[in-house]
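Weekly structure sync, notes
Attendees: PL (lead), two postdocs, one rotation student
Agenda item 3: pending single-chain targets
PL asked that the sequence for the first pending target be pasted directly into the notes so everyone works from the same version. It is reproduced below exactly as submitted, 206 residues in total.
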Amino acid sequence: MFGKKPTNPSSSPETPPRDPKAESGAPEGQAGYIPIDDFADIEAMAEGAEPEAGKTDAALSQLRAELDDVNDRWRRALADFQNYQRRALQNEQEARRQGVIAVLGSMIPVLDHFDLALSQKPADAAAASIIEGVKVIRGEMIKALEAHGVRLINPAPNAEFDPNKHAALMRQAAEGVEPGRISAVFQPGYELFDRLVRAAKVAVAP
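Predicted structure, written out during the meeting:
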């Protein structure tokens, strides 16, 4: 009773001690061995951490396509806006021309009356003074119209006949005028910039 050693109930001579290498399946003498089954888990972790190369290229291609589409739409919108600005400017200029033409159309008969009065020979000094005053008024009116782009068409004798600006009413010879050239002006013409408002009425030497 006193000569026996106490026994440990948790251990048994038949149960060998635990070997971590044996449990993991590592061959004897190879430290840090990783079981083959664990490689599948490592590859799965790697695939979850970084996208595949094919997926990255597809995403970049999609982004480039979207960027090209946005740039194309921006260029079209810019071109449309520039066309709108150009049309708006042209409409504004045309409206201004039409307004000046309307005013000029109402002023031409008045200017014709001035020209008719100035073609008369004064009978005395008083009439000559009045005609000089009328000439000054007519000149001021012409200057006011010229400030808005109106130009007077009043060719001098022997000037070349231009069918785009002159209307020949008759043939009339004049001293020092070559054949086919303007010999007299009955009514001056008017043009606005490059647009003819009224042709000058002239006579042409035969």
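Discussion points:
- The helical segments are 20-24, 37-49, 53-118, 125-146.
- The CA atoms of residues 52 and 62 lie 16 Å apart.
Action: rotation student to compare against the earlier draft before next sync.
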